[in-house]
Amino acid sequence: GKTTTIKCVLGLIRPTAGDIRVCGWDVRTHHHKAIEHASAVLEGARNVYWRMTPRENARFFAGLHGLDHRAHRSHIEELLERFGLTDRGDEPVINLSTGMKQKVAVVCALVKQTDLVFLDEPTLGLDIETSLELRGLLRELARKTRRTIVVSSHDMDVIQDVCERVVILKEGRVVADDRVDSLLALFRTRAYRMVLSDGLVGEVVERLARAVSGLSVTARGERTELEFELPAAERLYEVIDIIREGGAVIETITQKEPDLEEAFLRVINDTGSEGGAGA
Question: Mean pLDDT throughout 184-194?
């Protein structure tokens, strides 16, 4: 429901129920006023005209938004430079790489200088290097300009790398709405990994299984690896005592740092129903 939600906000799809306001304006009753404050990249580089150059596309979209491209020439040139398109600014878009085409689409969305910018799957189909480059540009843009950038993606690495706040949708409903760091903190103290210099007898394993959740015991030569989760950090001392009483020596204890993908899956699974989801 991510793209559908964005299209509803932009007034491209009329919702069957509820209200949407952009900067205080009702999208249904004051669409023109609301849309003055928003721009978007939908379906990637298909937004732009491939037989036109990046510079021509930027000027064209400025005109569509009622802007005189001559008066905004410096802003257009600044965007082309920021996204590394100056040297290819007069090359037809059809001749550019996938990553550059995507950058042109983002430039065309930014030329309007709106308060709200939607980027729908901005890194889809990009190679790793180009994806990382675009993420860095988006972070810099969000930091240096006073605007809200909404990124929708199935790739949780992108969301974690770029965004401060995450909203998770499942089957058209919001199942989580929080800061990225706050969402990760919910799971930060739960997962641990231990390496023991000796094995564990069955009785000790049974005691551990009752004290923790998700216990995994793996023998690796003379060592044993344990992975488990705890409901609270202080329960770790109980686990240590059980292992000591069993005669094993703990070599290392590592707290597994969760990533947004893990948090995402936990949130989705906790909702208990099946269906597509994304952020």
Answer: 78
